[in-house]
User: What shape does this take?
Amino acid sequence: MDLKELYGDNPGFDISDKVAQPYDPNLAETLYDPKKPMANRITDIGPPFYEQFFPPVIKNNYGKWKSHEIIEPGIIKYVSETGDTCFVVRCGTPRIITTDLIREFCDIADKYCEGCVRWTTRNNVEFMTDSEDKLRALVDDIKGRKHPGGSYKLPIGGTGACVTNIVHTQGWIHCHTPATDSSGVVKAVMDDLFEYFESMTLPAQVRIALACCLNMCGAVHCSDIAILGVHRKPPFIEDDRIMGVCEIPLAVAACPLGAIRPVTIEQDGKKIKTVRVKNERCMFCGNCYTMCPAMPLADEEGDGIGLLVGGKISNRISAPKFSKFVVPFLPNEPPRWPSTVKTIRKILETYAEGARKYERLGDWAERIGWERFFEKCEIPFTDKSIDDYRLAYDTYHTSTLFKWSVHTDNL
Amino acid sequence: MAIDKEELKQKIIEFATKKAKHKSKMYIKDLYKAAPDASPRQVKNAANELVREGKLEFFSSGSTTMYGVPGFGKSEKDQFGELEEE
Amino acid sequence: MADVKKHDTPMCDDLKKGPWPSFVDDIEQKGLKGKQDCLDLLGQLELSYVHKETHWKHGGIVGVFGYGGGVIGRYSDVPDKFPTIAHFHTMRVNQPASKFYSSAYLRKVCDMWDHRGSGMTNFHGSTGDMILLGTTTDQLEPVFYDLTHQMSVDLGGSGSNLRTPACCIGKARCEWSCLDTQQICYDLTQTYQDELHRPAFPYKFKFKVSGCPNDCVAAIARSCCSIIGTWRDDIRIDQEAVKAYMGGEIKPNGGAFSGRDWGPFDIQKEVIDLCPSECMWMDGDELKIDNRECTRCMHCINVMPEALRPGTDTGATILCGAKAPILDGAQMSTLAIPFIRMEAPYDEFKDFVDKIWDWWMELGKNRERFGELIQRKSLQEFLRIADLKPIPQMVKEPRSNPYVFWQESEVEGGWERDIKAFRARHAA
Assistant: This one.
């Protein structure tokens, strides 16, 4: 069906007239009236229609792509049945970026890419052009752009058998329940693994993800390597403040495990309504702090990082699988998180050395056996890696088919 | 079942106001109890219309959204104070 | 330039070193050009590096009038030290499908955000939205008016709403896509605007659309309803290109492994022996595939994209129920519909969505994800309400536990029996 017929009524179908106008900083104040909140209100229009943002080579070859080749790390050539080609330069970004940096991306897009740019699901930015001449100029331009401290603004890479950009959450820069930072940890890890971002030497792609607490608003649970913020102390309870800032029933209801109960205590001869937490039931999710600012959770010593490995999304060769919790706790070590960085490198390099071509990290660990994984990666095995949740039994070993390893050598 | 929307809204607001005295924020599931004969979709649509009329308000925990009655419970101002005029 | 105050941030400054793009440098440069918010943000981050604890608090602000999502309230717990970020709310803005942008559009968003916010963004949030980080309560409505009036873009989802749907690059630039991922994503987003902006559900609900089983948008791991492209006919083979791969004329896997010397390409070892269903073989110098036995894992196609392509009888496999670990463990989506045509206006698919939403709205507990409801009520119950036929593809293996909950209607003669007749045959 004709797209215009289907979606043409939406104001976002064609916004070329709108974006041609400069931003009017005063318009909203003339339209919005707090006393009549429905006046001039436009709602339920969704995003602008996607096709108007396609560069011509994408629009003209939609659904006609025939094949692709990564001609060098970070640069992909797509060939269409029509004979057209599209060159893509993929660059890493730290995800948290300023409007000034976005404008710089726009400058590049205007100069080489007919004003178009796109982001990938993994926070990479991609510049597209239809000719090899423009590609070379584009690459030279991008490579020359650096921040004052010397880091690349747009490192080229993230293709093929590499460590591509880390998907991550907000951490200490913007979240209220994080157990670790995000941007700082990602920067430290990617600085260390930079050689693997700009090359394609691994047995398969290695997807790293970071979520700054167990709730995983960035779903990291199916990553080759997942960096996870871990809380280990239950929330504080500020008895003298809780009445002023929280509603007790809401704080009680916030706990997914029912570990919070309302109590009345006596303090300085006055009765105070507050709550108590059954600490042994606390799963450190921070939901109570979300509903009640008098129940903060953050703790310098209690919080840190756990590592999970061996998950994947793709259905290629083996089914998608969850990442497994192999390192239960590493301390927070800003600004460079050396323990985390070192452990990840050790896992990555052990995998790179031992895995077969096309074998993902989790498939390799399963092939050699998890006992061997712990041995080779020199990770101490603890009871924290044994599941005790729903379906835990499915992860227990119920056969005699195990390997001898350092864990059995001295029995 | 055909349910008069205004009647449904009235039931919801009465129910919510009574509840709000003890617990100022409620889930949409809690509001279903205001009118057991109405379908979840009807209750949701009526509650959201009440929000547009300013008789109910939303509260967000980030991951879930709850309904509140204006004037009940702790306001943002109680919890976080107001910005000083620059 | 405006008068700004830079805080002492030695630990943050250490993150200016090294090759990976430094967010610290980017933010500090913006601050030095006049945005005190940016310098205060780094100041507070430094304090978090000292204390190893966050300095943010959550607020219950939901957003703009009439919407139950799209804004996350955020407050500093050290506002005296960093007054410009004392109130620092997040706004989620619905990204265009596959995140293609024109520079003109982006510049306008940037101009607006410099004027009304901190100039800080996340491109993008985990769900897919453009995230505008950091503004005050009084700016929320003006930002919304600017977005809708000047840029024709709406807020994204948060809270117990439909979350902003997301998709892979699809047919726009990928030869493997079996779906018009952008169109599906856009159509669903527009169809369900009410659910996206106003709470309708016990908890969040997510759609994600991937064009093929490589699943580049991670639909199977993080969406309540995963729409993944597939095909029913035969893999298309170009035998000449197969020979070219075997002769070393074309790099395997589009060059993805070219950074290491893995030796000459060996089709037997690298493709045929790795096929999980063992459905490929060489017949002389021709590659043969028993397509009936193929599970469409994409490996052979990934390795030899010039030679092998998905079939042309395409549609989607629908899987339901993925979620992150909270509350009692992560789930991946479970196969619901093996094959469905996905062509506008997607009526058949939307009928399915209506059925599963009605069920969840009725029976879901507060904060219960759709996947958890399936777990609690059983896959059988899910199939019944969705009018789906049970097929062996839905399980990895049949159950081993024989305690079946038979329904009365399934048993000959029903459950009402005459005890007298029974006793006539059996002594008491």
In short: The interface with chain B takes residues 57-63, 65-69, 71-73, 75, 79, 83, 86-87, 136-137, 158-161, 194, 198-204, 358, 361-362, 364-367 of chain C (CB under 8 Å). Chain C is about 30% helix and 15% strand. Chain C has a mean pLDDT of 96. The first helix of chain C runs from residue 10 to 14.
